[in-house]
Design a protein that fits this description.
two-stranded parallel sheet; single chain; Helicase, Ruva Protein, domain 3; Arc Repressor Mutant, subunit A; mainly alpha; two-stranded antiparallel ribbon; disordered C terminus
């Protein structure tokens, strides 16, 4: 189904009826069936303005507007990019132990991602298909992304507050802010180290859970823990205890 802000008024009325009466009529049937569902709606539109302008039903707006999450655009949370890249690598190249070169990751971090997470996912899937199966290089990325390395990125933009529950849809309305400095390899490593450290602390050193939260395999997690010297004291203490 399209995002809820784009539904025509006729479909909005049908959705409202389902929420109020908690029943549906299957296609081709004359019988109504009771349903017990939870609706999670996503939009990049300002629904409050939409209902005031008459393009969105006011009663449906207040029916849906119970818990609202504001998800910033991907360009506003660049520290999530390495995690998402590893997650998509695990999804589309499970078991291949693919790596991303520093130049390629730098390009991914500096790109503005107008298509948000969905565009990043497509980019990673494309790079896997074009790559050598070992390392994703800068040349495996679309030219629009690869050409931005070394250039001064455009100004950072901040999404307006919009009722949204999907990062793919965030960031439709933007306000200009100060420009970002280009990211170095050290910056990328610092971001990755801080992210892994934060997750590792949140799960109290549970490596299996940390790997799932980070979206990377256990082997990749162990390698990065060793590289960044994260949780090594816990590992050593566990080893002594077992002995």
């Amino acid at each position: 189904m399209d995002e809820v802000g784009e539904l025509p008024l006729e479909l909005q009325a049908k959705l409202l009826r389902v929420l109020q009466e908690k029943e549906v009529r299957p296609v081709g049937s004359n019988q109504r069936v009771k349903v017990d569902v939870r609706v999670i709606a996503a939009t990049n539109r300002d629904l409050e303005t939409a209902y005031k302008n008459g393009t969105f039903r006011k009663d449906l707006y207040f029916r849906l507007n119970v818990v609202t999450l504001f998800v910033p655009a991907l360009r506003e949370r660049r520290s999530d990019i390495p995690l998402l890249v590893h997650w998509f690598l695990e999804r589309y190249a499970a078991g291949q132990e693919l790596h991303v070169s520093s130049a390629a990751m730098k390009a991914l971090m500096q790109y503005e991602w107008p298509g948000n997470v969905r565009e990043l996912e497509n980019c990673v899937e494309r790079a896997i298909a074009l790559g050598n199966g070992r390392v994703i290089e800068l040349s495996d990325l679309p030219s629009s992304i690869a050409s931005g390395v070394g250039a001064t990125p455009p100004p950072v933009v901040y999404a307006a507050k919009t009722a949204v529950l999907d990062p793919d849809l965030a960031g439709d309305i933007a306000l200009a802010e100060s420009p970002r400095m280009p990211l170095s390899t050290t910056d990328l490593e610092d971001i990755e180290r801080a992210t892994i450290q934060r997750v590792f602390e949140q799960v109290n050193g549970d490596k299996a859970l940390a790997g799932r939260m980070l979206g990377i395999s256990r082997a990749t997690l162990y390698r990065k823990l060793k590289r960044y010297n994260i949780g090594m004291s816990v590992v050593r203490e566990s080893s002594h205890t077992l002995q």
